[in-house]
Design brief:
This protein is mostly beta strands and about 220 residues long. The protein folds into two domains: about 15-95, Elongation Factor Tu (Ef-tu), domain 3 (Beta Barrel); about 100-215, Elongation Factor Tu (Ef-tu), domain 3, CATH 2.40.30. It contains one helix and 16 strands. It has one helix at about 150-160, and strands spanning about 10-15, 20, 25, 30-35, 45-50, 60-65, 70, 90-100, 105-110, 115-120, 130-135, 135-145, 165-170, 175-190, 200-205, 210-215. Strands 1, 2, 3, 4, 5, 6, 7, 8, 9, 12, 13, 14, 15 and 16 form a 14-stranded antiparallel beta sheet that branches. A hairpin with a 6-residue loop joins strand 3 (about 25) and strand 4 (about 30-35). The protein is globular. The two termini are about 15 Å apart.
Length: about 220
């Protein structure tokens, strides 16, 4: 069913648990990670550091958790060209707290477009084009400048200062979830425009592909 943006809520990861070393990451329709006594439960959100570039620095929901293993929900790693066997080791860490960003206005996304390489052989009068990955995806939005005392504003300000990896979580009113690995850049210069409330802007600059869950 089609949706409109109204009702979408935004959260930023504001606390992480300790990193856990991964000793096995399988090639499977949903990659299974072994991390001894990880302590995660189904539905937790984790950040993955991996030798596989396609999942490195990305965020996933935990599924099928046992004492020492869990699956990265929805992440297919069966293609050993992209995910060489044994090459996915690294670390995982759980997001232990998300802080809601309130008073959001005019959210927009940019980037994520396919990158192409055009080439032409001398014997041909027509160019060819091949895909070469995707551009970085970013989100930006305005906030009520008077929300300076809110927890979400404070979290964005702190993350702007330290420039550490974090995760922007968007939840639509149907319950679907978008997880965008990113860094944060809050511009505290207040925009003054007659007929509008005072606003500041914040950008979330993507580090890798986002992850989407239906609900």
């Amino acid at each position: 069913m089609a949706q409109v943006p109204t009702g979408t809520t935004f959260f930023i990861a504001s606390a992480y648990g300790p990193a856990k070393t991964t000793t096995i990451v399988t090639n499977a329709t949903e990659a299974v990670v072994t991390a001894t006594a990880h302590g995660y439960a189904n539905g937790d959100i984790v950040e993955v550091s991996s030798g596989w570039g396609r999942i490195n620095r990305r965020n996933f929901r935990v599924k099928a958790a046992t004492t020492d293993t869990f699956a990265l929900e929805g992440q297919d790693t069966t293609n050993t060209t992209f995910y060489p066997a044994g090459g996915g080791l690294g670390q995982v860490r759980k997001i232990t707290a998300f802080t809601q960003i309130t008073t959001v206005m005019n959210p927009t996304s940019s980037g994520g477009d396919p990158k192409t390489v055009n080439y032409k052989f001398l014997e041909s009068d027509v160019e060819y084009s091949i895909n070469d990955g995707f551009g970085a995806t970013s989100y930006s939005m305005n906030l009520d400048a008077d929300s300076i005392n809110t927890a979400g504003y404070a979290a964005c300000k702190t993350l702007t200062e330290v420039q550490t990896d974090t995760c922007l979580k968007m939840v639509t009113r149907s319950g679907s979830i978008i997880l965008q690995p990113c860094t944060v850049a809050l511009n505290e210069a207040v925009k003054l425009q007659d007929g509008q409330i005072n606003q500041v802007s914040v950008a979330f600059n993507g580090n890798n592909r986002l992850t989407r869950y239906a609900a």
